[in-house]
């Protein structure tokens, strides 16, 4: 009799654990910083993009001390985008050996110019971190790392180009 009660309790706990294990979607921006490695700024509801971005960091490997221009991408991840959007915008840049990532949802007001929305967001994030000397050789490095991580995560990534922040113009 005691065994049946114990089994019933265990089954109940397992069922309750499985039912409550839904991914948490945050309604506030998230900033994740690992000193000397990367800095991630995620817009509300994009906190689950952290895993993909950390895969990009792994694919980048040892980052050079050179700076890069901001590279912008549209990442198609239908599971991640809760608002019915099929993609989110991702900007990547290197500053002093640290990889900076910014992710936002497309702005409906700027539907035809996602690059403008990303440019404004990235400029706000990187306002206090101007590039010293940008090196064009870092651009293919970032693109290769992003595409390798996207292939591993089974996502589709489309480049949107590069953007100069206010400090780089």
Notes on the protein architecture:
This protein is α+β, with helices and mostly antiparallel strands and 169 residues long. 34% of the residues lie in helices and 24% in strands. A hairpin with a 2-residue loop joins strand 4 and strand 5. The protein has one domain.
Please specify the SSE layout and strand pairing.
Blueprint: H1 2-20, E1 30-34, E2 38-42, H2 50-60, E3 70-76, E4 87-95, E5 98-104, H3 114-125, H4 138-153, E6 156-163
Parallel strand pairs: 2-5
Antiparallel strand pairs: 1-2, 3-4, 3-6, 4-5
Q: What's the helix-strand series?
A: HEEHEEEHHE
Shape: elongated
DSSP helical segment count? 4
The largest beta-sheet arranges its strands as 1-2-5-4-3-6
Q: Radius of gyration over alpha carbons?
A: 20 Å
What is the residue-mean pLDDT, rounded to a whole number? Answer: 76
When the domains are counted, the total is: 1
Number of strands: 6
In short:
Helix 2 packs across helix 4 (138-153). This protein is an alpha+beta fold and 169 residues long.
Write a concise keyword list for the protein shown above:
single chain, alpha+beta, 4 helices, disordered C terminus, six-stranded mixed β-sheet, 169 residues
